[in-house]
Amino acid sequence: MTGYCFAIFETAIGACGIVWGPRGINGVQLPMGNEGKTRSRIVQRYGDLAEAEPPAEVERAIEGIVELLAGKPNDLKDVVLDLDGVPEFHRGVYDIARNIPPGKTLTYGDIAKRLGGVELSRDVGQALGRNPCPIVVPCHRVLAAGGKPGGFSANGGVVTKLKMLAIEGAVVNHTPSLFD
Questions:
Q1: How far apart are CA 150 and CA 145, in angstroms?
Q2: Domain 88-168 class, CATH top level
Q3: Catalytic site residue from 5, 16, 133, 139
Q4: Boundaries of every domain in the chain
Q5: pLDDT under 70 in the chain at which residues?
């Protein structure tokens, strides 16, 4: 990925990473436990990228992510994403998710209905599980039927999702079970 760089930055939930190229943000990495693990995960996912000082537009994205994870409402809609190579259906899911305001949620079924029918709910979940830009594409705001948390592919799984939703003040119908 020539011309692509990354940076690690601290947030209220730990060290996150961001990957960018000439046309926008290509990826956001949620915390992996510590800065070194987050850095390793970025290299594993994107290859041998240069770690660099972020340009102004990427710095603004980082500041917005830090604010959001500190509990300040920021919808991050001004962050320019480069989703070239991402399937069209996934981009449709991400566009809808980006319009969910902080502190609010939709279900997989809500998004599926907007894209053609509730039978697409599983496809919506799979698209969100492959979301390259979590937080900017707020997949944590998408819940299972009945307002249950559903899945979350980031490190920490549903616990991380619930933590992010709690920071935003979202209401989730969650009764812990042996399977969480």
A1: 8
A2: mainly alpha
A3: 139
A4: 5-69, 88-168
A5: 1-2, 174-180
